[in-house]
Amino acid sequence: MDLAPDLVNSDAMGHRRRTPQELDELLRDLRRNAVSISEVFSLKTVQGDGLTRAEVRDLLAHKRIERIRHGAYVEQQLWVKALTDPVLMRRLIVSAAMVGLREPAYAYGQIAAELHGLPIQGTGPSVLEIVRPQGRDLRSATSRVKNRNRLEGVRILGRDLEGEPVTRIHGIPSIGLASSAITAAAQFTREYSVGVLDAACRLGVTAAGLTETTPRWTAGKGVVAASRLIELARPGAESVLESISRIRLMDRGVPEPVLQQEFHDAHGLVGRADMWWPDFGVIGEADGLGKYDDISDLRAEKVREDRLRRLGLVVVRWTWDEIWSSPRDVVARIDRARRRLAA
Fold it and tell me: Which one of 189, 217, 225, 243 is most buried, counting C-beta atoms within 10 A?
């Protein structure tokens, strides 16, 4: 006896199994209708747009979507990618925290800085911070939340956001660039903090802009200390290595250098130097890993340095490891170069 098609496609409990084509259509409905934060959507939103709990369960069972936390979901292929991409994983986690809140929330501190493209010390923040307007009852997002709804590694803060130029990056709401820089710098070592502030200035933030935004965040640990470093921020530093190098050398008695100084000879532009001490006649170059991966880059740099020597200049180079572990050796090399030129 032939069975009806709907019985052939049913499981042991009598539930009809969906075909791959039907699952694809459900996923397309999800993409079209769900309100999401950076591709993370909530179960409430999905149900409000016509998908039932049973349909969501089917998508989960067939590995079309992944549950990040109770009520927060993402497409499976994006989740698999995030398992080997820490930056993407942090974006999904912070989005999952936000999508479960009733009130608007914004990335704060290190995760906000990372979204804006500012340098992050180490391998990235272990705790992701989000901020909501001060005066909201944060207990509803923390102590009163059931265990199944909590998301480990996320901290929710309350601050006065009046006048804050909030934005959205990679689909994630965030505080502004200046605020991101100062709240992230508050959590780093002194030299790295300057590197973050330098990077913000390079992206167009002024020292005045950093100073003006600081009072909003002074309740945060380390913000006042970070604000004292604003006077050291320079837009000319093109990498955090250059920023750290400048501060570590100045701390050891080397005068502040001119940044990104151009040099010319009879043939035209020779190039720009990371650092230049005009009173010494010495050029400083902070060489990061990968700067000369290509042999042609190394040859071009050799030609450039020969041209600089013919101008009567001396080039002193150092690496990440040298400026961190033995900065006094770098200072000694700069001093020897200065003495050699003076002689």
Answer: 243
